[in-house]
TrEMBL record:
InterPro entries: 4-hydroxybenzoyl-CoA_TE, HotDog_dom_sf, YbgC/YbaW. Keywords: Hydrolase. GO terms for molecular function: hydrolase activity. Gene3D superfamilies: Hotdog Thioesterase (3.10.129.10). This is Acyl-CoA thioesterase. Its EC number is 3.1.2.-. The keyword Aminoacyl-tRNA synthetase does not apply. Belongs to the 4-hydroxybenzoyl-CoA thioesterase family. Signal peptide: none annotated.
Length: 140
């Protein structure tokens, strides 16, 4: 399992806020996705290259627990950790923290898999290497 916690820094932009003046709930998924892609790149996994090889990384489940809202101008960071969920699934455990007070704003578990060119789920070796040695938490 990847022991180190990966981190990507962000700043809320005005247009990401809704009429209440806080970040719209759907925008958080963009933050999480960008952090996952940066994590993969940092680990030598090129999302675009996998797609060219007809290996598609897909999200099959997203669990988001909204704790506190972010507002325009807030600086924050997203952490990423990955672990196996089963033989063909993996979980990205992600948190969003506001920098000024280190408050947890959101906690998420994003479950993904890889699809081969026939649309069958599998975990390619390059993803398995991210959590080599860690046991899967279930069997399917």
């Amino acid at each position: 399992m990847d022991k180190e916690l990966f981190r990507v820094d962000f700043k809320v932009r005005d247009y990401e806020c809704d009429m209440q003046g806080i970040v719209n709930n759907s925008v958080y998924q963009n933050y999480l996705e960008h952090a996952r892609h940066e994590y993969l790149l940092a680990k030598g996994v090129d999302f675009a290259e996998l797609t060219r090889q007809k290996i598609h990384l897909v999200v099959v489940r997203a669990e988001l627990d909204y704790k506190l809202p972010l507002a325009s101008g807030d600086e924050f960071y997203v952490t990423v950790k990955v672990e196996p969920a089963s033989r063909v699934r993996f979980d990205f455990l992600q948190n969003i923290y506001r920098k000024r007070d280190e408050k947890l704003m959101l906690s998420a578990k994003i479950t993904g898999t890889s699809l081969n060119e026939r649309g069958r789920p599998f975990v390619p070796e390059v993803i398995e290497q991210l959590f080599a040695g860690a046991p899967a938490t279930d069997t399917v």
